[in-house]
Design goal:
about 325 residues; alpha/beta; Arc Repressor Mutant, subunit A; D-Maltodextrin-Binding Protein, domain 2; seven-stranded mixed beta sheet; two-stranded antiparallel ribbon; 12 helices
Length: about 325
C-alpha cells in the first residue's frame, strides 16, 4: 500500500469514476484499477460496489474513507510544513572547488548567491580536481566547481559553465619576455612551475606540452598552491601557465608578464559537477538552477577581473584578458 493507492481510492470514492480519478491523477485507467485492487487486498475486503453508472463505496469503503482521507490530508500538511522548515533552516550547501576557482572566483560567487538566497549557509572545501571528485563520490559534497579534465563517469552530472584561458607568464626581466615572437621550441631547458600531481590544471598543461613534444625537455618545479606558483615566478624561479583572470593584477602592475606563444593556445572548460544518483535537496537545486539558468558567471567574472586592477589603470591600459565565457562550448 502506498500514498498513490490511497489517493486514487479517495478520488474514485468522490467521483464514482475510474476514468475521472485517472484523469486527475495523470495515470491510466488500468493503473487506477490495479491500485484499488491492491488496497482491497491489503484490507481483505471489497471497498466498492460496481454498477453500470460507475463505482460506489460499499459499507467497508464508507468505513475506511474518512481514515484514508485523513492520511492524505496529514501528508499534505506534513509536506507543507517540511518545505517551510527547509526554507527557514536548510542544511549548509557543501561546495567543493579546485584551487584557482576556490581562491579567486568562488568568494565573488558566494557573495552573489548570499544576496539572492540570504537564508542559505555554505561549507566550502578547496582541493585539487582528484580530491574534489573523490569527495563527490563519497557524499561529502553537494556540488563542485572544477577546472580540471574529467573522465566520462555516469556517477556524475557535468555541465560546462565557463571557459578559461591559461597564459604563459614570467618575470618581466626573463629572457623570453624580450623576444618578439616566442614559439614552443623556445621553452626547451626552461624551468616550468606547475601544480602538484592530481591537479586538473597540471594535467591540462602537461597534455598540451606533451602533444608539442616539449614536456620532456623542461625542468619542472611543483607547488600545491596557485599563489605559491605566482610568487615563485615573481622570484625568478621559472615560468608558468596561469589563468588569465588571476594574473590580471600582476600583469598590470608589471610583477608578471604574459608571453604570447605563436604556436600554442590553452583554453579549458570549467565544470559544475554534482552526483548523478543522489536526491537533491530543494535549496541545493535552487542554487544549481541559479548557476546554470541565470548566467551568474557572466555577471561575476568582469567583477573579479575589475577587482584585480587598480581603478586608474583600468581606464588607461589596454590589456588583453581572457575572461571566462561560454562562447563556442556546450555541455
Amino acid at each position: 500500500m502506498n500514498l498513490l493507492s490511497i489517493e486514487l481510492f479517495c478520488l474514485v470514492a468522490e467521483h464514482g469514476s475510474v476514468s475521472e480519478a485517472a484523469r486527475q491523477a495523470y495515470v491510466s485507467q488500468p493503473a487506477v484499477t490495479r491500485h484499488i485492487q491492491a488496497l482491497e487486498a491489503v484490507y481483505g475486503a471489497p471497498l466498492f460496489d460496481r454498477h453500470d453508472q460507475g463505482l460506489k463505496l460499499n459499507t467497508y469503503g464508507h468505513f475506511l474513507y474518512p481514515y484514508l482521507k485523513a492520511i492524505i490530508a496529514d501528508h499534505r500538511r506534513a509536506l507543507e510544513a517540511f518545505q517551510s522548515f527547509l526554507k527557514s533552516s536548510p542544511e549548509p550547501v557543501k561546495i567543493g572547488a579546485t584551487r584557482t576557482i576556490g581562491e579567486y572566483w568562488l568568494p565573488y560567487f558566494l557573495a552573489e548567491a548570499k544576496a539572492r538566497f540570504s537564508w542559505f549557509s555554505y561549507a566550502v572545501h578547496i582541493d585539487n580536481t582528484e580530491k574534489i571528485v573523490e569527495a563527490l563520490y563519497g557524499h561529502g559534497l553537494d556540488l563542485a566547481f572544477v577546472e580540471g579534465t574529467l573522465d566520462q563517469d555516469d556517477r556524475l552530472l557535468v555541465d560546462i559553465y565557463a571557459v578559461d584561458e591559461l597564459l604563459l607568464v614570467a618575470r618581466p626581466d626573463h629572457p623570453l619576455t624580450q623576444k618578439t615572437h616566442v614559439h614552443i621550441k623556445d621553452l626547451e631547458g626552461e624551468t616550468l612551475i606547475v601544480r602538484e600531481e592530481g591537479s586538473g590544471t597540471r594535467k591540462i598543461v602537461q597534455s598540451h606540452l606533451e602533444e608539442k613534444n616539449i614536456w620532456p625537455l623542461l625542468q619542472t618545479l611543483s607547488f600545491d598552491s596557485t599563489q605559491a606558483i605566482k610568487s615563485a615566478v615573481e622570484a625568478g624561479l621559472g615560468i608558468s601557465f596561469l589563468s588569465a583572470t588571476i594574473v590580471a593584477r600582476d600583469t598590470i602592475h608589471n610583477m608578471l608578464k604574459a608571453i604570447p606563444l605563436q604556436d600554442l593556445s590553452i583554453q579549458r572548460p570549467l565544470y559544475l559537477v554534482r552526483p548523478a544518483r543522489r536526491l537533491v535537496m530543494p535549496h541545493v537545486k535552487e542554487l544549481i538552477d541559479f548557476i546554470l539558468d541565470e548566467n551568474v558567471v557572466q555577471r561575476i567574472l568582469p567583477v573579479v577581473v575589475s577587482a584585480s586592477i587598480a581603478p586608474q589603470q583600468r581606464a588607461e591600459d589596454d590589456v588583453h584578458l581572457s575572461v571566462l565565457s561560454m562562447d563556442g562550448l556546450q555541455a
